[in-house]
Amino acid sequence: MSNGNGSFTERSVELGIDDTDMGRGIVFFDYDRDGDQDIFVANHDQPARLYCNDGNQNTFVSIRLGAQSPNVQALGARIYVTTGEVEQMRELNANSNDVSQTPLKHTLDSEPPTILIR
Predict the structure, then answer these.
(1) List of residues 6+ apart from 54 with CB closer than 8 A
(2) I want to staple 51 with a disulfide (CB 3.0 to 4.6 A). Which of 2, 39, 43, 59 is the partner?
């Protein structure tokens, strides 16, 4: 978990997300559309796991960009969301792994946001 200062603390056991199966793919996305990031893990020869994050009541903004041909998904665009003193950035890409792909819809915490798309 982020400590908010560029460092992290290991809390997977405490939070119940210590999957020790043979993971082949992972995606972070807003499965239940409540504004926070959920985790889906695809495992090799074992059941997949969905970890729903019900941890906050923050407000959020969900953005899906589009563009004209040939880059209709606006790949490479950067979304900047500024809330007070905190700026978040997401770069749209189509990364994929063995059995997962980055979602094209991005969800970021915000209250109230200033949004800049480059």
Answers:
(1) 34, 36
(2) 39
pTM of the model: 0.63
pLDDT values of the chain reduced to their tens digit, one per residue, 118 residues: 788 888 999 998 998 888 888 888 888 888 887 877 888 998 889 999 999 988 767 677 777 777 788 877 778 888 888 877 888 887 877 766 556 666 666 665 555 555 555 5
Q: Which residue has the tokens 């905190």?
A: 86
92: nearest Cα among 104, 82, 84, 81: 104
User: Token pair for residue 95?
Assistant: 């990364």
Kind and range of the H or E element at 10?
none
Q: Which two tokens stand for residue 32?
A: 């239940």
Beta partners for 101? 96
Spatial contact of 88 and 108, defined as CB atoms under 8 Å apart: yes
d(CA 32, CA 53): 9
